[in-house]
C-alpha cells in the first residue's frame, strides 16, 4: 500500500487535485466580490482564457517531452522549448495587433489546425530529423517551434484587446489563464502517463476549440443584443 501511494501516477493525481482546488478558490473569491460591482465579468470571456491557458501549456509540455528524442536531454529540451516558444509567441503577440477582432474565431481554428498537423506529422518529421547531423538536428528542432510559437502567441493578446471591456475583466482573464497554465502542466504529466504523449496534443486542440466555442457564443449574444 505504501508503494502504491508513492507511485508516480498517484502523486500526479494528488497534485492535480490540489492545484485544481487552489485554482477554484483563487478564481471563486473574485467572482463573489464582482457580484457587487457594476462591471460584470464575462463568463464566455473567462472560458476563452481558460481554454487558451490550458491549450498553450499542454502544447508546450508536449513539445518538451517529444524534443527530448531529438535533443537527447530533458533539461536541454525544456530550455529550448521554453525559450523558443517565449520568443516566437512574443513575435506572434506583436503581429496580433494587426488583426481585426472578427478574425479571432479563425485564429483559434488556425491554432487548432497547426497543432493537429503537428500531432499527425510529428513521427514522420522526427524520422527525418533524427538522421541529421547533430547541429542541423538541433536547428531543425528550433525551426519546428517557429510556426507553432507564432500561432500560439496570437489568441491571448487578441482576447485581451477585443473580448474584455473592463480592467476587472482583464485582471480576471490573466488569473484564469495563469491558473489553467499551472493545471495544464500537471495534467500533461497525468495524460502522458495514462494515455500517451500524443494525447496531450489532442487535449491542447480540444482546449483551443473550447475557446473558439466561447468566442462564437459571445458573438452570438452580442448580435442578439
Description:
With 225 residues, the chain is mostly helical. The chain has a single domain, classed as Growth Hormone, Chain: A. 85% of the residues lie in helices and 0% in strands. The chain has 9 helices and no strands. Helix 4 runs parallel beside helix 6 and helix 8 (167-194) packs antiparallel against helix 9 (197-224). The model is unreliable at 1-6 (pLDDT under 50).
List the SSEs and their pairings.
Layout: H1 2-5, H2 8-34, H3 43-71, H4 74-96, H5 104-129, H6 134-152, H7 155-162, H8 167-194, H9 197-224
Helix pairs in contact: 2-8, 3-4, 3-6, 3-8, 3-9, 4-6, 5-6, 5-9, 8-9
**What's the total number of strands?**
0
Report the biggest beta sheet as strand number plus sense, adding barrel if it closes. none
DSSP strand (E) fraction?
under 5%
Unreliably modeled segments: 1-6
Assign the CATH class: Mainly Alpha
Q: State the end-to-end CA separation.
A: 58 Å
Which percent bin holds the helix content? over 70%
CATH architecture: Up-down Bundle
Query: How many domains?
Result: 1
Q: What's the overall geometry?
A: globular
Radius of gyration: 19 Å
SSE sequence, one letter per element: HHHHHHHHH
Classification by helices and strands? mainly alpha
Q: What's the CATH topology label?
A: Growth Hormone, Chain: A
Tally the helices: 9
In round numbers, the mean pLDDT is: 83
Briefly, what is this?
This protein is mostly helical. It contains nine helices and no strands.
